[in-house]
Amino acid sequence: MNLLRALAQHGLRVFSLEDAMEILKEHDLSETYSKKIFHLMGKKGDLHVLGKGLYALPTELLSGGPLHSFEIGMKLVKKGAISHRSAMFFHDLTDQVLTHIYLVAPKVIAANKSTKADYVIDHTRFHVKRINPSSFFGIKRVFINESPIWVTDIERTLLDGLMDPQLCGGFREVLHAFEKGYDKISQDTFLKYIDKMPIVIAKRAGWVLERIQCLEEVQHQLEAIPTKTMQKLNPKGERKGPLNKRWFLMENI
Q: How many Å apart are CA 166 and CA 168, to the nearest integer?
């Protein structure tokens, strides 16, 4: 238990053996012996074994509150961030209960060596979308139960919904998110992010803002972005529906 208290004093709540080794070395424990110790503590119930090489301190040693699934997600992808439907939940953009934890991570070795997308850890399902490093922006640091968590900000979260509605509960759920969150966004930040994304995202955003009758000046700026290609409003929907000539979108919802 003294070893677990040492981990707690160093702020570790969810950790891998690699995370803990620097502290364990102070107790003259080798990696091989530490693995055996962790295995025994897990069997006795002194240490919570989450799976996939991750551990958590017992409840009585968790300062700041009970373990949050977002903390586990942060250890799963390391340099990633909570995203999509999970970020919508964090920003109060959805009324739906979380069934999965969604994360986005840049395609760099330091984020996660695996290319696997789906995990089940401690009975919770996690989905990781890996993206090019240049697309990894719009991230902010917050604290949950005294633990640092990276999450997509509200502007990026809404735009991700237009890119990947299937990871956000569907296109109609994304519409609902815009209705709840449009008055919370920074318009300058929203437009800055759109400049970094495919043109179709600008057109989908304009269509949504027109649909919910808000931010007319932003609509005008999005309308002015040139395009000659008619694309689908819902990227996961069928290619059929009326054509919207203002936004160059096929209204397939």
A: 5
